């Protein structure tokens, strides 16, 4: 029975995983031979994104400050809003606080079209401008659209290719799962990560290109090229494990080496962490958020707090609407998402952390070993820094991946995160109760389902699979 | 790679599933030979549960009506509370409403201790009195305790055996997963479903007994004997599929017959349903819930609405506290949870429904084919009755399971549900978009994770596995 139960959990027919692995090994393609030039050229297009006083957001058919609450809302009630959050928890050094938070009830489609060329799977990515992007243009999924967008609330053009994801029967679904986004900045946000493989002709619009996973893996090592949404969708594909080990799953039963924890033990550990931590997070009027000031330049924390809410004005002829204003969440400085990995019994394990964040749908998701806003570093005494932070920052020889990538430029202004993977085969096996060593394959099995892995962990898993 | 990914999803070593199946086939045991007599005797003990006016709940160290909100709360702030819920959705005939709702942020332990006797797995169940139970005493998990209970907020005795679940290393974890409860009556409620196998001696307290799964399966066919919490925990065990087919999972890739949908297609269908339906459910003061009246006998719906909130006074010498008062949610009449099953390609499929309920953590969970409060039947015109309701009620020859079982007697007063399984091999394969045919094995694979199957579907799956 369990052998059969196993097989039922397969997301992918064998042939598909083989083809995905083949695509990951193909680092050049006749279809898009000059991808670097192409990206550079796209970045030369004229875009403009300027910070404006929050009060200037107010427009009859645009954004405004809601009377009574002070919330920032679009007149249509769609897109997203900036509201207040009142958090109480039994976890961590601060047990109660208020903060602004982005609220987006819509589920956006983050969709990628896949198609074979010359026998190799290619993925259709878009060079997309977002107002909060570093370098303005980054590579995004084929479609990155809220239902406000594809139902055309903003009166602009419909996003290209969206019909592949909204109309049934356009192709074969390879992946289709809801995943969370930043639990510190979004309230219960989740998006639909979907990949559809088509066999027929697909018109190639300006700003789009077909790339193999090998080409994408190479671009992933460049600063701020692969955007967050592309990373989370691609991360849901089952690429080959980095070490190519034959893996026998719950190894203890077959006598072969498995992960240090079985899947049952991992699920039990996650359940235990969720049971340990209570957290209630209630939306409240933005005006009632104590500890934050409304200034001309935005809503800023009185002290502590590591982001502000600002407004921007945007001009971009390539977007569905050519000019608009909107609020953005602007982090103060660089984030760090650091993952320690090590071989245990010959198998690559990652040290993940059960992370409690107010925007999580079920309190806990798995995060990197360390997640930290580096701006807080100078003012944080050594004794209050996150576990393993200094260890990661001082790593030299074991650095396997170290690239700055951006978070969502449609909601965040210049939100950069340093994604750091450090291999340390001498790292202690015994770790505090909030941490666990989990193999890469086990993380990929968890990622088939919603809300196990947080968004930074998912990007790191994609990076690991591209090492 | 996918073959390995499959194996990682195994919850259970092979030997365990074999032992669970063996336990399910053992319908008599030397350990508890006279289980029917034992249950009857337990039911003869003196318990008393009386409905009292809500105002009489008010006690300095007990329950009270919170000033300002009218919420019913325990003075300790623990256990649960009765608050108001304001629901808005784009789904169903009613798009906005307010209702009372039970709120319980604590994660309760629903824990069962398992142990081998004579080479067969037995499970330690408790004959437990709950104030809202039909027949007062039903068989419950070994431990059924909120953290308010096991941290002794109520100043009573600590629940027996709770240390097996709160202290590490007492046994081997077989199952440990959070699962939801009634999404129409609870706000975001979930409990920890956990089974631990021990090998050492376990003291046998009064009111507890060891049962095989075969004995439990027999009791499951008797009215109001196996309580809701025992059903949900036992339902997480991987018993053998009823038809014993060799199952090959994603059958299309091996050329052998699989389910009508692959797991990828099932996950995609669930994702699609969640994306289709918007639902926001905000807690509001109970006093602000329009359409409900506070009367002496409780909080009752002005019209429609199929439950009331009442108060009870309880005397029970076998509980940790011998006498107390508390509120309960009292449904108006019998619920129906009906499941249509049929063989497709030789394999048993169940017709489940993507059910949108305000208390769900992610909008949609899978429910039975039909869930309905039978009290509403006479006043619901044929055209507004749920799909397939009349078909199920008129079924004759294909009835495979038809037993009335109770929902949680610690929160609900006399909440009875008729669990009905109808096999109909002529039932149409094409069904509306909210429905899907899923094999029993596929449902069991989903049940390894939180919040795929609603609580009624989980009871029905347990019943199916005991056919």
What does this protein look like?
The structure is a homodimer of 467-residue chains. The first copy, chain A, has 467 residues and is α+β, with helices and mostly antiparallel strands. Chain A has a domain at 5-46 and 106-234: Nucleoside Triphosphate Pyrophosphohydrolase. In chain A, 20% of the residues lie in helices and 34% in strands. The first copy, chain A, is built from 12 helices and 25 strands. Chain A has helices at 2-8, 14-24, 35-43, 147-150, 163-166, 213-220, 228-234, 251-254, 263-276, 389-393, 440-447, 455-465; strands spanning 47-52, 63-65, 72-74, 81-89, 96-103, 108-117, 120-129, 137-140, 143-145, 172-180, 186-187, 190-197, 208-211, 279-284, 292-295, 298-301, 307-316, 323-331, 335-344, 347-356, 364-367, 370-373, 399-406, 416-423, 435-439. In chain A, the strands form 6 sheets. In chain A, strands 6, 7, 8, 9, 10, 12 and 13 form a 7-stranded mixed sheet that branches. In chain A, strands 19, 20, 21, 22, 23, 24 and 25 form a 7-stranded mixed sheet that branches. In chain A, a hairpin with a 6-residue loop joins strand 17 and strand 18. In chain A, helix 2 crosses helix 6, helix 7 crosses helix 12 and helix 11 crosses helix 12 (455-465). The longest helix of chain A has 14 residues, at 263-276. The relative contact order of chain A is 0.17. Residues 1-12 and 241-257 of chain A have low confidence and may be disordered. The interface between A and B is large, with 66 and 66 residues.
